């Protein structure tokens, strides 16, 4: 682990079992404030729809909430699911954020709907749009956020000339190729899609073409982190995430579950095997254990930045996990 690997946070705004959405959004604010104090690079929120366990569907609105509570930390989307929206609307939303919080806003983009097909249809985008529309939407977004040309008829106000930096997010080789083609920074979803990680990183690095935004490849990778005072406590807190992934496999739309003493009482061996594979890069344990796991991950991937999600039911335990990670030698070198 080098002293130049920044740490960031992907807040999935978990609606915890027994909590209100208002409390969920307050939790996000608290996380952002502490992340800034601890020296994290950025905090992003993800767009999901119709999920009882995720409260960040109106991503730009929540970013305004946490941006107003902080002063320096970068804020952004991890990501906005561009096929759900008109590029012009996203340009206006993030152009507004950039005007409110200058030089602090990132726009991470994804291609998946972030929901089921019925909900995606209710979002009222063209359901017949093909893969080829995604690159065209990215180009349109770059045009709206860039310096307008004399012949440009459609302007994003706010947004025009804001030059909000774009990121491409993904879990596949397609996203790696597209990020390389556009010369954009790339964030890989290794926190839930581990299988294509190394192939995607290799393709992105090999095919990268410099752009006005970025001269050389820049990669961020996602990692789930459940860190506590002891390995045993961390494994206990981790059972909430295991239940969430089991519920996703079952098609059960539920709030983020409380941890349980024995995960085998609520998940089958087959489910636990699937979850262990899906979350193979999760960092779970004490600060010492987590540091060793993270050191191995960074050395193996050679990523430029790591973005952590803290899937912990109790807010105090989540904030404590953030602090324990921030006390690692790598994080201390940045503060």
UniProtKB/TrEMBL annotation:
Keyword Heme listed: no
GO cellular component: cytosol
SUPFAM superfamilies: Bacterial luciferase-like
Keyword Transmembrane: no
Keywords: Oxidoreductase
Domain Luciferase-like, chain residue ranges per copy: 7-303
Alphabetical list of Pfam families matching this protein: Bac_luciferase (PF00296)
Molecular function GO labels: oxidoreductase activity, acting on paired donors, with incorporation or reduction of molecular oxygen
Family of the protein in this entry: To bacterial alkanal monooxygenase alpha and beta chains.
This protein's name: Luciferase-like monooxygenase
Organism name: Paraglaciecola mesophila
